[in-house]
Amino acid sequence: MSATADFERTDQDGGTLRFTGNLSLSRIGDLPERLGKLDGPVRMVDLSGIERIDTVGAWIVHRFAATHDAAVEGLNDNDQHLMDQVIRSDQPVDMRPGHVGAVTRLVGEVGTAAVTAGRTMLGLLGFLGATALAFLATMRHPGRFRFNAVVQQFEVVGVSALGIIGLMSFLIGVVIAQQGAVQLRQFGAEVFTINLVGRLTLREMGVLMTAIMVAGRSGSAFAAQIGTMKLTEEIDAMRTIGVSPMEALVVPRTLAAIILMPLLGFYASMIALIGGGLLVWITIGVPPVTYIQRIREVVPITDLYVGLIKAPVFGAIIAIAGCFQGLLVEADAEQVGLRTTAAVVQAIFLVIVLDAFFAVFFTWLGWN
What we know:
With about 375 residues, the chain is α/β, with parallel strands linked by helices. It has helices at about 30-35, 55-70, 75-90, 100-140, 145-155, 160-185, 195-230, 235-240, 245-285, 290-300, 300-325, 335-365; strands at about 5-10, 15-25, 45-55, 70-75.
């Protein structure tokens, strides 16, 4: 049976306390009381003669050494690790966080947001490259192309969205015409409301609002679907049986968005023109035939080209952002909601940024 914990003090090195025996809970006995009654200085605690030490023994030794400002020596690697853990746990802990100034907190939050945005953009660029490689792999091996999956996404992205996009576009056309007529009436130029509706709808609002609507509907759906598959380990199962998630999940959704966005953008622009024409007919008295003729005269064909060129780029960005955020889901179901929200915000932000770049680019080309 192991010996009871004990110690002896010598005057060596300004006062040395040598422990012996078993410094564990079952064999400590009255050691704490005897240490409390010890007289004389102690500069070193020697533990080379002990048989064993546990957390309780390490705590007693540490508290004694801290009280007498003594060094602890003689432990092997494992016991020294235990002592280090005990010392680390004896640090003061703030029950409440320290006060942080408003400026410091603001700068910290801005810095954290900037770092997060940078990492997200790098990840999105990497995912864009992976998507391009998946498209190339599908082109090299046409047998792996999932036609049925693409057709199903046509219905999700396009057919199911026709009603809400049509209603939204019609109301946008009405609003543009109404606000334009009110402002231009001050200058006696109400007839130019047709110019405003035609150019703004075909060049910007039709495609842009369609992209925002698709981001809210389809981009969020992509993130939620793929995120749920990630949680249920369906994506891991696909990799196990040799199916590429990029080719099976990302490529069909991205391709469907790229193909359908120009069609949806053109459809939205036409519905918006109808809404604007109806209001112009009611408020200004311009009949539909004259309205259509005026649209043909004042709206250059380049405005239609601008909208149709931007649309597939917007569709690709929306699909890639949704799939990217969906594949980042992990840990729990809460992540699905967070990543879905992030997908919509990220897609809308990138669409607006790209729209600004397109505006500058087409102006530089002279398409204005």
